[in-house]
Amino acid sequence: MNSSTPMLADGSNPEGVNPNPALKWHTQADLVDVVVHGPAFSHATNKLRTFLTYAKIEYRHEQHLKDKPQGLKPGTDYTKVPVVDVAGRQVNDSGIILKNLLPALGLDYDKVWEERIVFELDTTFKLHCTSQDWALLAVATVGAPSILKWLVGPVLKRMERKQAHHNIKTTGLGHREGDEIAIARAFKSSMVGKFHHGDRPGHVDLSFYGFLSGYLYANCPIATNMIRVAGLDTWVAQMKVAVPLESLFVG
């Protein structure tokens, strides 16, 4: 969007708008004092953390679960997660953050696959996850009491399905329902080596794995079945070496 679009009152960028003045993230050395704000339940938050962990960028993760149940950064004019602070400057919108982050990490951006992950895979999981999937995810990633699984799962299922239908009907961004196994098979068929990008993980590998990371850590059936049926077990094992799940969800 136009760089002349006004920033929010706190000086940070609105949704879909590049920060003004422009960020100076040219190399990894520019990524200092990094803080990621957003709960470990959030796909987008985990994706960004996956990239930072892979690149060995030191960062602090603030979930804000006790401040606000939705995990929003207190005191910000931006109402979604994730939010990142780099060298004291706040940047909003996971898409904007990622597009600025990848060049600094020396990774090429794949618009087609990123949009498929954000608009199709995310929507598909919101619609297809069972109450069991949501309960396992909540307990494993944000420490929801396991004794409340029977309550947490159905509540999250209703909330996420409602959000998915809202996104499809109102955003105009291309949110759509797909089939998670078909998406995983398409991903596998597009691989050109051990990873999507060859011998080393690239943008698509890290985005796909980052999206799935919480579900894989929680052993959610929707994710484990998808990986098994699509024949991605070896890829997942290799990604776990590159970015151990414990590095994202333990500690």
Plain-language structure description:
By secondary structure, the protein is of the alpha+beta class. It has two domains: 28-105, Glutaredoxin (3-Layer(aba) Sandwich); 111-249, Glutathione S-transferase Yfyf (Class Pi), Chain A, domain 2. The chain has ten helices and four strands. Strands 2-1-3-4 form a four-stranded mixed beta sheet, with helices on one face. α3 packs across α5 and α3 (111-128) runs parallel beside α7. The model has no long low-confidence stretch (mean pLDDT 94).
SSE layout and pairing:
Layout (H helix, E strand, L loop, with lengths): L33 E4 L5 H12 L4 E4 L20 E4 L2 E4 L1 H12 L5 H18 L2 H12 L6 H22 L9 H10 L13 H15 L3 H10 L2 H10 L2 H5 L2
Parallel strand pairs: 1-2
Antiparallel strand pairs: 1-3, 3-4
Q: How would the global form be characterised?
A: globular
The number of helices is 10
* CATH architecture designation of the largest domain: Up-down Bundle
Return the CATH topology of the largest domain.
Glutathione S-transferase Yfyf (Class Pi), Chain A, domain 2
Largest sheet: 4 strands, mixed
The poorly predicted ranges are none
Number of domains: 2
- Fraction of helical residues: 40-55%
Gap between N and C termini: 38 Å
Give the SSE string.
Answer: EHEEEHHHHHHHHH
The top-level CATH class of the largest domain is Mainly Alpha
Q: Please report the total strand number as a whole number.
A: 4
Mean pLDDT across every amino acid position: 94
Rg from C-alpha positions?
17 Å
Structural class of the secondary structure composition? alpha+beta
Beta strand %: 5-15%
Largest sheet, spatial ordering of strands: 2-1-3-4
